[in-house]
Recover the amino acids of this structure.
C-alpha cells in the first residue's frame, strides 16, 4: 500500500500548497469535465504529470513514485482489459484508461498539497454538511494508519509461519484471511475509540462549529478559477457548435 | 535484553532476527546458517516472536484454533497440534478458555494467548517485543516465569523493553542500543548503576537502580539486599 503515500498530504511551500483548496477542487472539476470530451486530455495529462513530478521532487517522494507508477500501471492494464472486453475498441479503451488516470492524478494534486483540515474547511464552505466533511477527511487521515497496521499484522502472521507467496491463486487468497480479519477488527476498534473521543469532546453539540484556522480566497485563486471556468465554458460552446473531430470517442 | 531510546534500532534488530527484514550490509547467522538463505517461515520455526500488540495476530474463532495456527503452518500432525496447543494453553492458564472466541479475552489474556501460540512450537530462540506494555503485575510475573523456565531449559530469550525493573528481575545480560550501535553490553545491575551511561542513552534510572547505587556507596556486599538497606536506613534515621 506504499503507493497510497503519494496521495497523502506533505507540507511544502510550492505555489500549489498556497492556493485555496476550493481553487484546486474546482480547477480539478473543470479540468476533469473538459478532459471528458477532449483529445486535449493528452496535453493536460502531460502537464499534470510534469506538475506532479515537480511537486514529488520538491517533497522528496522519490521512493514512492516507483511504486505509484507500478500500481497505476497495473490498474491501467486491468481497466484497459475490462473495457476492451466490453467495447471491442482499442482506441476507446485507451481513452477511458487515460481519463481515469487523469482523474486520479487531479485528485492527487489536491490531496498531496492540501492538509485534511483545509479540505474539510473547503468542503464546509462549499456547502457540504460538517459531518460529511469530517468523515471524508478522517477517511483520508486513516489511510496511512491502516497501511501501517496492515504491515504490522502481515509481519505478525509471517512470523508464525504464514507463507503468502506459496500455493495457487485460491490458496493465496485464503491465506489473506489471517491478515484481513485482524485488520478489520482493529480498524473497527480504532474507529469506535475515535468516535468515543469525539463524543467526549462534544462532537455534534452544534451544527456550525467555529474553526481555529480559516481559509481565504486570494487574487491568484480568483484568477485561476476564472480562467479555468472560462476555458470550460468556451470549450463547451466550441464543442456544441462545431462538433470538432478532436472530440473523443 | 535490549534497551535503548526510541529509534535506536531495537525493533529493526528483532525484525532482522526473524527475517522480516534482510540486512543491507553484513550477515545474520542463525545456528550457523545465513538467514539470507532461509525463508521467513524457516526462520520463524527457530525464532519465535511475541509481538507487542496481540490484536495484530488474533483472527481465529476459538482460542484453541489461534494457538494451532502456527503449528499447522509448520506441518505438525493433528494429534501433535492438539497436544502441543493444550500444553501451551495450560502453561499460560488459558485451558479453560479453549473454546472461547479470542476476541472476548481481556488484554492480559490476549497477551498470554500470543505467548502460548509461540510456546506451542518451542522455538530455539524466544523473542519478546515490549512484553510488559499494558500488563498488570500478575501478568508480568507470569511472563517472567515463562522467561525463567525457557532459560532454565537451555534456550535463549531476547526481550526488547523499556521496563527496566522487569528486565533486571528476569534477565542476566543487558545491551543498550543507540542509533543502531551497541553502546553497552553488561549485566543489568552494572548498567543500572552507571547513571551517566543511562542518561546519555535516554534511559530513566529506576528506583531500584538508585537503591542499588546507595547500597554500593554504603559499602554493602555486591548482591543487592533491599531488606538490609531498609534496616540500615531505619536504624540510621528513625531511631
Amino acid at each position: 500500500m506504499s503507493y497510497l503515500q503519494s496521495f497523502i498530504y506533505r507540507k511544502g511551500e510550492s505555489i500549489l500548497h498556497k492556493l485555496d483548496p476550493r481553487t484546486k477542487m474546482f480547477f480539478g472539476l473543470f479540468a476533469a469535465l473538459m478532459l471528458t470530451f477532449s483529445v486535449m486530455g493528452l496535453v493536460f495529462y502531460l502537464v499534470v504529470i510534469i506538475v506532479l513530478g515537480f511537486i514529488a521532487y520538491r517533497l522528496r517522494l522519490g521512493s514512492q513514485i516507483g511504486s505509484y507508477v507500478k500500481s497505476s500501471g497495473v490498474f491501467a492494464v486491468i481497466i484497459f482489459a475490462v473495457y476492451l472486453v466490453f467495447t471491442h475498441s482499442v482506441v476507446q479503451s485507451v481513452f477511458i484508461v487515460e481519463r481515469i488516470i487523469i482523474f486520479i492524478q487531479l485528485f492527487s494534486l489536491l490531496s498531496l498539497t492540501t492538509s485534511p483540515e483545509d479540505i474539510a474547511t473547503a468542503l464546509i464552505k462549499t456547502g457540504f454538511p460538517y459531518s460529511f466533511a469530517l468523515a471524508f477527511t478522517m477517511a483520508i487521515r486513516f489511510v496511512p494508519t491502516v497501511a501501517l497496521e496492515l504491515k504490522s499484522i502481515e509481519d505478525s502472521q509471517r512470523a508464525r509461519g504464514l507463507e503468502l507467496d506459496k500455493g495457487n491463486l485460491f490458496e493465496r487468497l485464503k491465506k489473506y484471511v489471517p491478515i484481513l480479519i485482524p485488520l478489520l477488527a482493529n480498524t473497527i476498534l480504532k474507529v469506535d475509540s475515535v468516535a468515543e473521543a469525539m463524543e467526549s469532546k462534544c462532537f455534534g453539540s452544534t451544527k456550525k462549529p467555529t474553526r481555529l484556522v480559516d481559509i481565504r480566497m486570494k487574487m491568484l485563486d480568483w484568477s485561476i478559477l476564472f480562467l479555468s471556468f472560462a476555458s470550460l465554458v468556451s470549450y463547451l460552446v466550441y464543442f456544441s457548435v462545431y462538433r470538432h473531430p478532436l472530440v473523443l470517442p | 535484553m535490549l534497551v535503548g531510546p526510541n529509534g535506536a534500532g531495537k525493533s529493526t534488530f528483532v525484525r532482522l532476527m526473524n527475517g522480516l527484514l534482510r540486512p543491507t550490509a553484513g550477515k545474520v547467522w542463525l545456528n550457523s546458517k545465513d538467514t539470507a538463505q532461509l525463508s521467513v517461515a524457516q526462520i520463524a520455526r527457530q525464532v519465535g516472536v511475541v509481538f507487542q500488540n496481540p490484536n495484530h495476530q488474533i483472527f481465529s474463532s476459538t482460542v484453541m484454533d489461534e494457538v494451532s495456527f502456527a503449528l499447522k503452518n509448520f506441518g505438525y500432525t493433528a494429534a501433535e497440534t492438539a497436544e502441543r496447543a493444550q500444553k501451551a494453553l495450560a502453561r499460560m492458564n488459558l485451558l479453560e478458555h479453549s473454546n472461547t472466541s479470542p476476541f472476548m479475552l481481556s488484554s492480559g489474556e490476549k497477551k498470554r494467548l500470543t505467548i502460548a501460540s509461540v510456546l506451542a512450537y518451542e522455538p530455539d530462540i524466544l523473542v519478546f517485543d515490549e512484553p510488559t506494555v499494558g500488563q498488570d503485575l500478575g501478568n508480568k510475573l507470569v511472563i517472567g516465569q515463562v522467561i525463567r523456565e525457557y532459560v532454565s531449559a537451555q534456550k535463549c530469550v531476547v526481550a526488547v523493553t523499556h521496563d527496566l525493573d522487569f528486565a533486571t528481575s528476569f534477565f542476566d545480560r543487558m545491551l543498550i542500543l543507540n542509533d543502531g550501535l551497541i553502546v553497552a553490553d553488561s549485566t543489568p545491575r552494572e548498567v543500572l548503576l552507571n547513571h551517566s551511561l543511562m542518561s546519555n542513552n535516554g534511559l530513566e534510572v529506576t528506583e531500584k537502580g538508585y537503591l542499588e547505587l546507595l547500597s554500593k556507596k554504603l559499602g554493602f556486599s555486591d548482591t543487592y539486599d533491599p531488606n538490609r538497606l531498609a534496616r540500615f536506613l531505619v536504624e540510621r534515621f528513625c531511631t
Notes: The first strand of chain B starts at residue 2 and ends at 3. Chain B has a mean pLDDT of 88. Chain B has two domains: 2-204, 206-239.
